[in-house]
Amino acid sequence: MQNDFFVLRSFSLFFKHKPAKIVVLFSLSLFLGFNQGVTIVLLIPLLGLLDPSQHTLAQNKWIEFLTTILHKIGLSVSLELVLAIFAVSLLSIAFLTYYQSILQAAYQQEFSHEIRRRLFKKIISSNWAFLNRKSKHNHIQILTTEIPKMTVYYYYYLGLFTKFIFILAHILLALMISVKFTLFVAGMGLVIFVLLRNYLTNARKIGNANIQVFTKMLKHIDDFWITVKMAKVHNSEEFYYNKFEESNKQMLEYQYKQIKNRAVPQLLFTLVGVFSLILVVYLAYNVARLPLTSLFVLIILFARIFPQFMGVNSDLNMMLSNVESVKMVLNLDMEIDEMKFENKNTTEQVTFDLSINIKNLNFAYNPNNPIFTNFSTSIPAYQTTGIIGPSGCGKTTLIDIISGLQKTQNGTIYVDDKVINTSQLSAWRSKLGYLPQDSFFIDGTIRENLIWDAESDISDSEIMEILKQVNIDKLVCSQVKGLDTSITNFQYHFSGGERQRLALARVLIRKPKLLLLDEATSALDSENEAQIMDCLMKLKSKVTILFVTHRENLKPYFDKIIDLSYK
Predict the structure, then answer these.
(1) Rounded-to-integer distance, Cα 51 and Cα 59, Å
(2) Domain spanning 2-335, CATH architecture
């Protein structure tokens, strides 16, 4: 029952995407699956026009009918005419098949694009609490690897549908020539299909195992890049290599199993098909005494029917190999609600010129261990407020609550006496700048890093002015290409103090009203820390600074201190 529900869920998602194209593909598959067989059977009356004496009474009626039509339109029967009619039929089918393949490929890629877009939007729009407890490897794997497999999964469903129509059409046409031989061939195909069902069961198991190994390998690669400097210093490259190679070998093993699990049924189908076809030809010619034209068409039909049984088995094998991929995508899709981006053009306005007041705040990750209970405090504008206290007391949590990343159980946050709720959150966040302890940088130019998420166009002169404010302009100008200097592995290109000042410049480019710094100097030496703090002190006439730290030596820089040790 659960598997039935999974199939229905997967198909509902598939058919919601451009259903009109699905109808066109369905109609084309139906038409082509039937008419490919009709084209071949058409050879019997067409060839019969050349020699009517070689056919049965029923076939001669078709021949008389076609002869009458040809005479009415003024055409005489000839081999050239027969071949021309047959060629036109085949070419028409070929062009329609080409159109179907292009349409189907376009639909697959559009579907893959739509699912990837939809899931990525869901991920980045979900709340911080959700993202903070999820593994990035899982999401990267789904967006890059599993969604294409999901598209392949539906492709094989469509392929199955086409093959079933093809088989049915060819069997019906073959029945018109010989009921006994047709039932024999169809029966042999079904028997071998049932006998090989265990290979389909194995396909799903191997596919699932392959996904698990790929997840492990992806994690090993990411672990290395996160700890690459430590790996080099500790001379532990072999440790990372062995971990990677372990999962790499397992992936090779499972991929080989997948190949073998598909190849064995194909071989057996081929062997049985060859045996059946030889037996049919022998009996049809020596026992049933079928006319040569009928025998010729029957051979072509059977030669097409049996590979379709093999194709059905192969498609089912591929589908079952990708079932777990589809489930991963569907589970993520169901896990996250679809949300709209916050409206940045909202008419809501939030001014911040006086203070932030927090009243009766209650918050807990674990209900049995509350972090804040009826907590109240204030943060004056255009001053530097330090949030201090021991590890685990809620310093970072407090700025997460102020920025709206964490939702409180109850309590109120006022900005200039205006309550900040969901409707004002977007307007409030547009006034925030955030600088963490470990600043991120992308592979790109210095300019790209500085204007990373700026909402408006920033001129180079504006960038340089802000770089001067944080005393980092000379460093940028000393680079060969200045702002256009490309940076890879940014954290090893500049010193810790230089990186943090560049990160501070990036935040200031947003022109924030409130600057949130979370242990922003904890990784710096005393000299670089003093330089950063001196820069900040020059800024507080324009921006309010809220500084989370555990360092006692920074207290003299703060106009106000919120000590969470005594909350």
Answers:
(1) 12
(2) Up-down Bundle (1.20)
